[in-house]
Design a protein that fits this description.
This protein has 176 residues and is an alpha+beta fold. The protein is built from five helices and seven strands, in the order ββββαααααβββ.
Amino acid sequence: MNEHRYILEPYKGMESRHHCPSCQSKEKTFTFYIDTETGKALHPTVGRCNRESNCGYHYTPKQHFHNAGIPFDTYHKEAAATRTVPPKKKPASFISGAVFRASLKGYESNYFVQYLNGIFGEGITERLITIYYIATSKLWNGATVFWQIDTNGNIRTGKIMLYSPDTGKRVKEPYN
């Protein structure tokens, strides 16, 4: 069950965007508010322009009903009272410590570590590896893993990136 009766129209390509009634931009930058019960746009002026810094037009359903003299709060109070099932929260998932420890080796094939060695030398590079948990991935030859660890020490995820051993810049080909 949807909590809100009126929502911004989900993006389904440019056919779901329209011309803004305020800025009249040549491009389609306007999103209608739709009624979730009927699936139709509330009114051609009720919506939001994507050109926030240039236009900033945002006419909400509440403003529309207020200006039209229609009580808006009635529906929302009834909907809040009938909602009984709270949304289920997904449990957090973590990377195992074994996977984490296994990635903290093989630095001779890690292009990013090779680059750091060339710039800072082995002593500082080893310190950086320890501080930032720089790891080696087997996904691509020479790839680096940057682990994301929460405040409780749980490993949430890892970002795998490939760097050039010569320039230290990211390599986005053949994979980004």
